[in-house]
Structures are given as structure tokens and as C-alpha cells.
Amino acid sequence: MELRQYLSSVLLLCGLILSGCASYAPPQAGPRAFESRSETQVDGGVRVSAVVLDPKESEQAFAAPLAAKGIQPVWIEVENQEAEEFVLMLLGVDPDYFSASEAAWKSRRLGERKTAAKMRFFQEQHIPLVIPPHSTRAGYVYTNLDPGGKAFAVELIGERDVRRFEFVQQVPGFEADFMRVDFQRLYAPHEVQDLDLNGLRHYLASLPC
User: Fold this and answer.
1) CB-neighbour burial class of residue 202 (10 A; exposed 0-12, middle 13-18, buried 19+)
2) 105 to 46, 91, 113: CA distances (angstroms)
């Protein structure tokens, strides 16, 4: 009898938790402060801007705990002012990237409802893969989480041309051990020598065995 009451209590508690969970609601469109951190590169008539979102920014942009699920959105904008169509290769951004539906499903909360609406929103936010001539396309790529820094490439394939833009960005909010070191004061001025290659050879040769 006690076991039956215990199981009934557990089921009731689970039901209350699930019934109290809200349906997924896409965030309201608004200013995206992270775009001010974007880096831009230009090659001919093609201009690419990109920025890696930190955990707080990604949760605000998608109303979902993406970082806690190992997902890190990268926002990319491609401006193509040439007469050639380009196709974005996602493998350059992350060889193991998540599709929009994968990212939506993986980031769901306990008892979250209306997952179809969530998947639709995530798909709408994904960057289009085809960038027609004289057009601009922007959106996200759902990559694996790199908490400290991220290196990625935006590779565009055209009928007669390939454009590759390489980025290395630090992710805000991450503090590694080396960031706490004051390298300017680590050594006294007389302990540091500015040597060229030949000077380094002579210095090493003068050291004791």
C-alpha cells in the first residue's frame, strides 16, 4: 500500500511539473547587440561578416538554453555584389554542425510543448545556403560549443570561383588561466632580451650545459 501511494505521488508530481511547463514562444524581434562585435572580410564583390554568440546571447536570441546543450550559434551575413551565384558550405563552419531541427529538438526543456513551432523558428533563423547575385543573406549556423574561442571558415562555392574567409574569434564571458596573468609585469626589464635569430643562437650557445 505504501509503495502504491508513493508511485501515485510521483506520478502526480510529474503531472504537475509537465502541466506547468509553458509552450515554446519564439523571442520578440529586436536589436541584436552581438552584431556590433562582428568581424568583416571582403574579397572582390563579396563581403562576409560573422560573430560567435556567447551563452547569454544565444539564449536571448532563441529563448532556449543552447549552450547548456552544447550548441553555439554563429551569425553570418554574406553580401554578394557579383554576377555569380554562390553556395555556402557549412562544413567549413563546423564539420559536425547541427541542422535547425536537431538544434531545436536538442535544446528543448522538460515538458516543453509546441516543438513544431520551435523547429520552424530555428529553421527560419538558419542562414540560406544559396546567395544569388546582387543580394544579401544572413542567419545562423548551429555549431558545437567552443567556450573560449572559435576558429571557422566561411567558404562560398561558385560556378567558376571559390571564396574562403577565415575567422578566429574569442567568445565573451570565458576566463582562462592565462587571462589572469599580467605578462607586462611577469618579468623585470633586465630579464627580457629582444633577440633576432642569430642573437638567439649565440645566447643559447653561451648557456651552461
Assistant:
1) exposed
2) 34, 21, 11
Q: Which domains does the chain have, with CATH numbers?
A: 40-173 (2.60.40)
DSSP 8-state symbol, 6? H
pLDDT digits (tens, 9 = 90+) for 30-77: 778 899 999 999 999 999 999 999 999 999 999 999 999 999 999 999
pTM, whole model, 2 decimals? 0.75
Helix, strand or coil, per DSSP, at residue 208 = coil
Distance CA 140, CA 129 (A): 11
Buried/exposed code over 39-51 (b: 16+ C-beta within 10 A; e: otherwise): eeeeeeebbbbbb
First to last CA, the chain: 81
- What are the start-end ranges of the E strands in 90-180? 130-131, 135-144, 149-158, 162-170
164: pLDDT strictly greater than 70 = yes
